[in-house]
Amino acid sequence: MQHQPTPQPPRPVPGPPPAAAPQQDPRAGIEEAMAALDDLDRIPLAEHVERFDAVHAELTTALSSIDKV
Fold first, then answer.
1. H/E element holding 51?
2. For residue 52, is pLDDT > 80?
3. Residue 51 CB burial class (10 angstroms; 0-12, 13-18, ≥19)
4. Backbone angles phi, psi at 19, to 5 degrees
């Protein structure tokens, strides 16, 4: 039985670090989420909870990206 070599992690190479993806302004996500509430008075009351839940999820995502939490 032959012993298989253990795979080694990639070795660092000299040079500048890879470019990071451009970061979006978290305020854009907040403004978009809040805009979903603009027409709240025009939708049936029964749909308000669903809309609030969607806005809450979007705000949570946008706000957590501010501090990379």
1. helix 48-64
2. yes
3. middle
4. -65, 135
Helix 48-64 crosses helix 26-35 at what angle (to 10 degrees)? 170
Q: How far apart are CA 12 and CA 2, in angstroms?
A: 29
Cα 67 vs. chain centroid, distance in angstroms? 12
Residue 15 zone, left/alpha/beta (φ > 0; ψ -120 to 50; rest):
left
- What is the pTM for the complete model shown? 0.57
Nearest to 65 by CA among 15, 23, 20: 23
CA–CA gap between residue 41 and residue 38 (Å, rounded): 8
